[in-house]
Specification:
With 551 residues, this protein is mainly beta. It is built from six helices and 27 strands. Helices cover 8% and strands 40% of the residues.
Length: 551
C-alpha cells in the first residue's frame, strides 16, 4: 500500500508524501487491530460504525475550489442529505448472528438437548414435543444530514484552519424475527415455577412472544412466580429518533498550500451527543459511538497529478483520522456467566435471598444487565480518492477503510452476591431435600452449571456436596457455594465488542459554478461498503446529495 501511494506521482517527494504514508499506516494499523476470523456470538449490543465516522463523505463535502483561489481568510459551508442501508443479510450472515450463540443467525429450539441451541424451558415454553427454530435477519437503515463548516487561511503560505461537522440523523432496526414454532407441552409441572401441587400454564407459547417480554394474559405472574424478560427484548421495529450524532471538531495547520499541493495536520475531537446503550432491546439502534468521547489526529492532503491549459486536471486526495475513544461511564450491558457459557444470560434463576425462596423466578438477563464503563484504544478512518476536474465539472472515485480495535468493558454496577441460583430444570417446589418427595415443599433447588441448551432433568435425589465439578450434576442444596457469586461470575470478555473493519468504494459527480463569488457546488454521491459478520461491521450502500458554498 505504501509503495503504491508513493508512486502515484513522482513530484510528491519528501513531506508531500506524508498524507499518503499516514493514511497507509492508519489503514494497516487498524486493519491489524480489528482482524477477526470468527463471528462474535451472544452479544446483546451491536455498535456499528457511527453515522459521523465517514471521511469519504467529509472529503466529498469540501468540493474542488482550492484555498489558493481566495484572497486571505475564507470559509466553506456544506450540507449532505444521505440515506444508507445494510445489504447482504441473507445466508446466515450479518448482525443477526451476534446475539445468538449458534455462530449463525438461526437457532434451533428444543428441550434440554445437545441437539438444540436453546432450551425452550428457560423461556417460559416448558417442555416441547416438536422442536422449532428462530431466525434474525435485521434490516438496518440510517438517514439524515451532515453539516460541515470550514474556516481557514487561503493564501499561498502556511496557515491555520478549523472545521466542525455535525450530523443530524436517525437509525432504525427492523429485526425481522421469524419462527418455526416449537410445539410446547400444555403446562409446567407442579413445583417448577411455583411452590404448588398443581401444574402451571406456560408463561409463553412461542419464542417470539417470550422475547417481547410480556405474558399472554397481561399479568406478570401468569399464576406463577415467573417474571418476564425486561432486557434483551425483540419487539418490532426500533428507532433511535432524530438526534445529533457525534460532533467532530478539528483544529489544524496547513504546512503546504499552493496550486499543486495542500498538506495539513490537526487535532481532532469527537463529542458524543447520540444515545447510549440501555440494554432494553436486543441490537439497540446506536447512531454514534455509544457515548464515547474521541480525541486524536487528523491529516489531509492533495497533489496535482496532471493538468493542461483548458482547466482540466487530475488530483489525488487523502483524508485520514485516528481517534482514541475515551472511557465512557453509565453504559449498560448484559452479561453471560463464565461457568455456564454463551447464552447463559437467558437461564432461569431463582431468588434465594438469605437461603429462603423469595417467590421470584426470572431470566438471568434481568439481573446481569448492569451499569458498565467502556473504552476503545483506537478507531481509524482513511480515504484516498482521485478527482478529475473539467471547467467546473468534477468526477470523484475513491476507497475508504474504517477500523476499530476491540472494546474494554468494566462492570460498575453490582450483581447481588450469593443470592440467586441457576435453576436449570430444577423446580423450586418439587419436594427435594426431604425424606419423602412431596410436591409443594420449598426445596431451594438449583443446578449451578446448567447450560442454555442442556441441564439435568428435575430430580428428587438428595445431594449433599457443597460444590459441583461436572455439568450434568444435579444439585438440590441450599449451600451458598452453589449460588451466583456476584460480579466475579460474569463474563465481561464475552460481552465486549470485538475489533471491526470495513472497506468502501465511492463515487461522486458534481458541478461548481466558478463564475459566482460564492462558487456553489452541487453533486450526487454513492457508496458501497463491504464487510462480513466476521468483520463485526455492516455491509452498506448509500446515496447522498451534497451541496455547499464558499464565502
Amino acid at each position: 500500500m505504501i509503495h503504491f501511494l508513493k508512486n502515484l506521482h513522482a513530484k510528491s517527494a519528501g513531506t508531500k508524501n506524508l498524507p499518503c504514508i499516514f493514511a497507509a499506516i492508519t489503514l494497516l494499523a487498524t486493519a491489524s487491530a480489528s482482524a477477526n476470523s470468527t463471528v462474535s456470538i451472544s452479544k446483546n449490543l451491536f455498535l456499528q460504525r457511527a453515522f459521523s465516522a465517514n471521511t469519504s463523505r467529509e472529503l466529498l463535502m469540501e468540493g474542488h475550489v482550492t484555498a489558493t483561489d481566495f484572497d486571505g481568510f475564507y470559509s466553506l459551508f456544506s450540507a449532505t442529505g444521505a440515506y444508507q442501508r445494510a445489504w447482504d443479510q441473507s445466508n446466515n450472515q450479518g448482525i443477526g448472528a451476534f446475539p445468538f450463540w449458534s455462530g449463525t443467525n438461526v437457532m434451533t429450539v428444543g428441550t434440554n438437548s445437545s441437539l438444540s441451541d436453546l432450551d425452550a424451558y428457560q423461556f417460559g415454553l416448558g417442555t416441547v414435543t416438536t422442536p422449532g427454530s428462530i431466525q434474525l435477519n435485521p434490516i438496518v437503515y440510517q438517514g439524515g444530514s451532515d453539516f460541515l463548516l470550514y474556516c481557514g487561511a487561503s493564501i499561498n503560505d502556511p496557515g491555520l484552519f478549523f472545521k466542525i461537522k455535525a450530523p443530524l440523523a436517525v437509525i432504525g432496526f427492523n429485526p425481522q424475527l421469524t419462527e418455526v414454532p416449537a410445539t410446547p407441552a400444555l403446562n409446567y409441572p407442579a413445583g417448577a415455577l411455583q411452590v404448588s401441587t398443581s401444574p402451571i400454564n406456560d408463561p409463553a407459547t412461542s419464542m417470539s412472544q417470550a422475547f417481547r417480554g410480556y405474558l399472554l394474559d397481561g399479568q406478570n405472574s401468569n399464576g406463577s412466580d415467573f417474571l418476564p424478560m425486561q432486557f434483551g427484548l425483540i419487539d418490532g421495529i426500533q428507532k433511535s429518533g432524530v438526534q445529533f450524532g457525534d460532533i467532530e471538531m478539528t483544529l489544524g495547520y496547513n504546512f503546504v498550500c499552493n496550486e499543486d499541493y495542500v498538506f495539513g495536520i490537526g487535532l481532532r475531537a469527537s463529542a458524543p451527543s447520540a444515545n447510549k446503550p440501555n440494554g432494553v432491546y436486543l441490537l439497540q439502534p446506536m447512531l454514534g459511538r455509544g457515548g464515547s468521547w474521541g480525541i486524536g489526529g487528523y491529516i489531509d492532503g492533495k497533489a496535482t497529478l496532471w493538468q493542461n491549459h483548458t482547466n482540466q486536471s487530475l488530483h489525488v486526495n487523502v483524508m485520514s483520522t485516528i481517534l482514541h475513544l475515551i472511557t465512557t461511564k453509565n453504559t449498560i450491558r448484559s452479561y453471560d456467566l463464565i461457568a455456564n457459557g454463551p447464552g447463559s444470560k437467558y437461564l432461569l434463576v431463582a431468588d434465594y435471598n438469605g437461603g429462603v425462596y423469595q417467590e421470584v423466578i426470572q431470566n438471568l438477563i434481568n439481573l446481569s444487565t448492569l451499569d458498565s464503563s467502556s473504552s476503545f484504544s483506537a478507531e481509524g478512518d482513511v480515504t484516498i480518492s482521485l478527482s478529475y476536474i473539467s471547467n467546473g465539472w468534477a468526477a470523484d472515485f475513491g476507497y475508504n477503510f474504517w477500523g476499530r480495535t476491540g472494546e474494554t468493558l468494566t462492570i460498575t454496577g453490582q450483581f447481588p452476591e450469593n443470592r440467586y441460583a441457576v435453576l436449570g430444570n430444577q423446580g423450586v417446589g418439587q419436594g427435594a431435600l426431604v425424606p419423602t418427595p412431596a410436591p409443594g415443599v420449598n426445596s431451594n433447588a438449583c443446578q449451578p452449571l446448567a447450560q442454555i441448551n442442556l441441564s439435568a432433568p428435575a430430580s428428587t435425589t438428595v445431594v449433599t456436596q457443597t460444590t459441583v465439578t461436572a455439568q450434568d450434576s444435579v444439585v438440590l442444596a441450599t449451600y451458598a457455594a452453589n449460588r451466583i457469586s456476584g460480579n466475579s461470575a460474569l463474563n465481561t470478555t464475552a460481552a465486549q465488542q470485538a475489533g471491526a473493519s470495513t472497506s468502501k468504494l465511492f463515487a461522486k459527480g458534481s458541478y461548481s459554478w466558478l463564475d459566482s463569488h460564492f462558487s456553489p457546488h452541487l453533486g450526487i454521491a454513492g457508496e458501497f461498503e463491504i464487510s462480513t459478520a466476521a468483520n463485526n461491521a455492516l455491509p452498506q450502500w448509500s446515496v447522498a446529495l451534497i451541496g455547499g458554498v464558499y464565502f
